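--- STAGE predict ---
source: upstream dedup step, 1 unique chain passed
mode: sequence only
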Amino acid sequence: MADSPGQLAAHADPAASAAGDLSTILDGLVVAVQGRARDWSGWAAELADVVKATAARDNELLGAEADPIHPARIYGELVPRLADDAVVIGDGGDFVSFAGKFVEPKRPGGWLDPGPYGCLGAGLGAAIAARLARPSAQVALLLGDGAAGFSLMDVDTLVRHDLPVVMVMGNNSARGPEKGPMQMLYGYDVAADPAEQTAYHEVVKALGGAGEKVSDPKDIGPALDRAFASGVPYLVNIITDVNAAYPRSTFGI
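--- STAGE serialize ---
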């Protein structure tokens, strides 16, 4: 479909194409589908059952009491604390993949992630921009511990320019997008393990911000409350289970 005939692709020979007012075209397709005699009720009921079962499994993860902490539990605590105007920025692999599943932005422009090529390290810069562009909004930066190694020093910029951002770290002492696939393919991994439970919150404090370490799931919510109330760059360094990897069904391209 295209707005005008001149915009239709000429390099391929599709079975059908349409050009013109897209609303009219889509409305026509809806009428055509609804006019078919097929009964969709069984399919709709089956789909509803799948959605219900998936939601139940998700709720278990979002409230998980596992020790070490399951990454999904962090989002079970974070999502209810996000304001309508929240800007959520992802900078990480597995940890941010969980965010993509559980965090639903409430307004346009409320979500930014590393994209399909995983440009890790861009999160601090995006957080600086978000705080400047939306000075009254909640800004939350989701950091994997691997991603933090690229640009955590940019907290210095947040501090010097008085730009409060809440940084929520899933610290599993692993580079998940590399470690998991290597384990699946070869049965071992190399160069995918940062130092265990690194005190990244102490780095933020040394740069003039604030932060704390969390290793008990019951402490996540109160720590997030302190972070959002602090009015300074604040890192909640949450120790997560390295074995709770984001489920993968493909090896990529």
